[in-house]
Amino acid sequence: MQKLALSDEILMNIEKPVRYIGGEVNSIVKPKDQVDVRFCMCFPDVYEIGMSHLGIQILYDMFNKFDGVWCERVYSPWPDLDRIMREKHIPLFALESQDRIKDFDFLGITLQYEMCYTNILQVLDLSGIPLIASERGEEDPIVIGGGPCAYNPEPIADFFDFFYIGEGETVYQDIINLYRKNRDKGGTRREFLEMVAEVEGMYVPMFYDVDYNEDQTIKSFTPNNPHAPARIRKQVEMKLSETYYPDSPVVPFLQVVQDKVTLEIQRGCIRGCRFCQAGMLYRPIRERDVEFLKQQAVKMIKNTGHEEITLSSLSSSDYKALPELVYFLIDHFKELKVNISLPSLRIDAFALDVMSKVQDIKKSSLTFAPEAGSQRLRNVINKGLTEENILKGSMDAFKGGWNNVKLYFMLGLPTETEEDIEQIAVLADKVAREYYEIPKEQRNGRVQITPSTSFFVPKPFTPFQWVAMNREEQFREKARFLKAKVAEQLNARSIHYKWHDSDLTILEGIFARGDRRLSKLLLNVYKKGAIFDAWTDQFKKELWDKAMEEEKVDLEFYVFRERDKDEIFPWDFLDAGITKEFLWREYQTGLNEKVTPNCRKGCARCGAFEFHGGICYETRNVSGDEVQ
Amino acid sequence: MTLRIKFAKYGNLKFLSHLDVMRFFQKAIRRAEIDVKYSEGYHPHQLMSFAAPLGVGQTSEGEYFDLEVNSMISTDDILTRLDAQMPEGFKVLHVSLLPPTPPQTRKESLMALVKASDYLVLRKGLAHLPLTNEEFLGKFSEFVKEPEILAVKTTKVGDTEINLAPFIYDVKYDVPPTELTEKYDNGLCIYVKLCAGNENHIRPELLMKAFHSYTGIEYDQYEYQVHRLEAYALKDEELIPIYKFHE
Question: Is residue A285 part of a domain?
Fold first, then answer.
């Protein structure tokens, strides 16, 4: 049995010691004498969050299929253990071997949301790895960043040796081989990074210099090393049915957030909602083969013993073979009592049929994400859902026995007026009115409509990357206004408006579109004690306020400023497939309240055609010439 | 059909909570493709019930749960298949088929069956216990002979003082640690048989705590590793290991 890094006394004195002991079913332990590269994969949040993430499971499986590579996991120690580790100088360790992270060859950190950035510093610090990449020695692990936030890596550029831009399935084997090659010839860390810089998709921040204009915007962003290319193109896996996918994901002992099998049915989205970063970044949409998914589902349920399977994608209804897949899962898993959950489903006859088969209607709710209250604003954001869709979908569902509807909206969208906000309340009321159209004796109790709002944060690589974000006061005022409008509705008693008064929104706004100079802010606030900022009970606003003051971070510049068309953005050196011209065009089309058809209806010439696959090569109404 | 399954929980998995253990077995049973019986309704769950929960941090080779199945090849087959799903830290030790409950009688709960448990208490050998093994054993054997051993038992309704003496059924000093107990260099290992179950459940920690008040040495909960060896039911005035109860 693996000797644990932490003593019994420590483990018995902290919350959920099982977070730190490893040994889970399907976790992988390799004989050390058959391993020459040690990789540690990190999700910089608590175990229950990190273990729920599909991407890590895919990469964990992939690395462990590589000969001679042993991939392990590490998560952020919760503040209770964090304190003890600092006091007693216990170095951070990987779950499987319980060995020190500092002795690994690689530490790969996934970047899923901006508010985990201080936890990156926590992980490095507890591991005893210098926080600043340029201060690391030959013995330190190579620290890699990847995941959605790597599409603007600049605010955390100083802390990483390199970023892997794009999908992880493609070139990690090459990188491991380069590492071996460099080690065999006695090469230095710097020499290895120079080799990495030549691999497509790899960004080595220290090989680039940034110059600024007087107004603080970027003047130039240029390589300072002959091995580093001026532009870095994202990695895309075009053969999603022939690549790595775990048959046997790790089964946690603890109850984690997503305690189920996750089946990623497709990557990318055809919809082109203008606020949505994922919908832009993961183009072109690529479906996994339905037979592959069926086999995978059966294997994964058998090998994990999970009692639930969920389909994952940005818009499941757009998966062409969805009915075939879902009915297969229902039939196949009926006897095994496996629940099937279907998030991001458009409400139509098929969806209602499936939901009535897999859920308890009385306890479940219907979810719509109109994102904006008025049709005008929905056109601005290119959200195809119409009022008619919502009302008809609700009515069909009410007739089927549902009486609980959730509606998701955003506040602070570009061009938003009070009228648009009021329409959120009006729409919620209209849904309730639909319900009361049903004769009383056929109704299933009271109806409950729950509109909720989040605050809009402009993200890189979206048509709204130029826009100014709302101020905190504006957000609060808008939420108050909406609350009052909800109260004025006829069915106000059936409408329960929820919003998050989030201090984090502004911070998210800073880092989403921030530049390299923000690493000072992160270091400062981390040294003051900020970690787990994504957790409201751990978030300490006063530390951030103080650090921002000390580092003279100008919110006007980073957050509340409308950008010029030709401004050089910190992320412009990355080529995500979609062009800046396309994004600007979409922005202007949006301002003109015009809708852009989805990828299946017509090509919007976003640039993802360059990847030679997926939707761009399936059903095209335009000739190849037109897309060039 | 009801199966009674005996298992061990040891090593690093001693940190799993009772809830974690239940969830673990639900998944293991599914992986083993056992034809388990589910409850009705939209959220069906496996029909299983556990005996007395083990404290977090304790190891055991005397854990039990009952499981309802629709069909099976044999108890041996269930044992082989389920044990194949155990990671290091769990082991399936015994599977037996319970006789059918006669009609019109209520099924006896496993939890209610338990009347006593055997434990090994091992000294971890941390620096802060100022006694040699010899001194320790000397004092302990005097302590358990006391006619009255008072201890404060914390329950949901409050603290009550009880006399442990009548609930200490046996003490031995020559029972060796088993393969599944934790190993410590000092080798001190005490065997106790204590009253268990719904009425007077005596945890070994309570006994050790009382021993410390007896000696006047401050009690440190991390000084001892507790390992449960077996759980017993009462049959014809005699304590029978749970797995043999229906034989």
Answer: yes
Count of domains observed in chain A: 3
A401-449: pLDDT as tens digits? 888 999 999 999 999 999 999 999 999 999 999 999 999 888 888 899 9
Which SS3 state, helix, strand or coil, does residue A168 take? coil
Residue B36 pLDDT exceeds 80:
yes
Indicate yes or no: CB of A1 within 8 angstroms of CB of B12. Answer: yes
Q: Do B44 and A337 touch (CB under 8 A)?
A: yes
The hierarchical CATH code for the domain B2-107 is 3.30.70.580
Residues of chain B with a CB closer than 8 angstroms to some CB in chain A: 11-13, 15-17, 19-20, 23-24, 26-31, 33, 38, 42-44, 56-57, 85, 87-89, 124, 221-222, 225
Closest CA of chain B from A51, distance in Å: 15
Complex-level ipTM: 0.94
Instruction: Residue A421: give its domain's CATH number.
Output: 3.30.750.200
- Name residues of chain A where pLDDT drops below 70: 361-362, 619-628
CA dihedral over A250, A114, A235, A226, signed as positive or negative: negative
Write down which residue in A501, A516, A547 finishes a domain: A501
Size of interface A-B (CB pairs under 8 A): 74
The structural domains of chain B, with segments of one domain joined by +, span: 2-107, 113-244
pTM for the model stands at 0.94
Give the pairing of strands A142-146 and A162-164. parallel
**Strand partners of residue B152:** B161
pLDDT value of residue B125: 82
Judgement on whether residues A319 and A442 belong to the same structural domain of the protein: no
